[in-house]
Known about the structure:
402 residues; Aspartate Aminotransferase, domain 2; Aspartate Aminotransferase, domain 1; 2 domains; 4-stranded antiparallel sheet; 11 helices; binds pyridoxal-5'-phosphate
Amino acid sequence: MYLDNAATSFPKPGAVTEAMTHFATRIGASPGRGAYDASVEAAAMLHDTRASLARLLGEPDPHRIAFTLNCTDALHLAIHGVVARWRRAGEPIHMVTTAMDHNSVLRPLNDLRHDGVTHTRVDVDPATGLVHPDAIASAITSHTRLVCVVHGSNVSGTVQDIPAIGDRCQAAGVPLLVDAAQTVGHHPIDPAAMGISVLAMPGHKGLLGPLGTGALWLGEGMTGHITPVRTGGTGSRSEDDVHPTDLPDRYEAGSHNTIGLAGLGASLQWLHDQGLERIEAHEATLTARMLEGLLPIDGLQVHGPHTTDHRCGVFALTCAALTPAAFATALEADHGVLGRAGVHCAPGAHATFGTLAGGGATRLSLGQSTTVDDVDHAIAAVRAVVHHAMHAPMTASTGAHT
Length: 402
Ligand SMILES: Cc1ncc(COP(=O)(O)O)c(C=O)c1O
């Protein structure tokens, strides 16, 4: 039973592989690189995928979507693009993020310290993982160029109050970059209405597309704030040896992952047909059921919000009698439940919950294809593993003492 959807969603809808196979075997050409039918068809596919993602975000202009390799790549473009813009202007650069953010934000920010870019990491409530919007506002200085906040935590499922944070950023005149790795495709997101300036997304998690896909949505006026970090061939304005400024080419140098984007187009259509509100309601039901089943288990700690408010379907579990690795191994070996043990590329989140020194937690994460029976099976498996560890901590199957 696959419960590692926070890493990448599985299984994907059948239409995804069909669209990829169709593109790979029947089209194959690079979009915008030729006037022959296959290239024109590839360009139409690319446009349709872009338009479908824009529709999902309530964005009328598909050109505001730039395709990337994954969410890390989208975050990298936004962060380094803002740095490049202000560095060219010779201005000091400060950024704000939170303790819950992923290494795909923390590592670029720490790396940029060597180049004089400073940042403030705002602490969060250690029980829920929620950041107070006023704490973000207090961290903003006159040199703050970007606030980066993860929407849904990939550790505890904590969902931040983005509209309130967006209000504070707008009041301070600082753009807000949101990492929607764990929420896009699971919840309806209207970035413009939520006060978001730039939204980074993977195509391969909640959007149900293949690995190797991602996107950055750019709000009104953001192109002036984000200098391209990769320049090169675009198939457009080839007579010009200076990178084009029009969207989306401004941020899409080089040949696209067309096979992946054909698959993403199909998954976006599937999501549209299902309806995001329906998906959100289904996942909220499963999340409530998980909490109801997990919270009473003696010897189990569930980190993050204990109610469905400000929460998505990602659960970080620990048991004092088991290492996270032994916990995950027992869930898989004895019950066929596939989760992920460790620190999940989010050391700040684990430090917040006090789980960093113990090797992190065992994570189970729901997806669009998870059923009520799956949830019941996962709860029973967790209960059995924890019970066994608490009462027979020396046995090999729990792996305690490893
Ligand atoms: C919160 C969060 N941000 C960013 C990423 C990076 O996403 P990707 O694997 O698409 O680069 C992940 C991946 O797990 C994530 O959970």
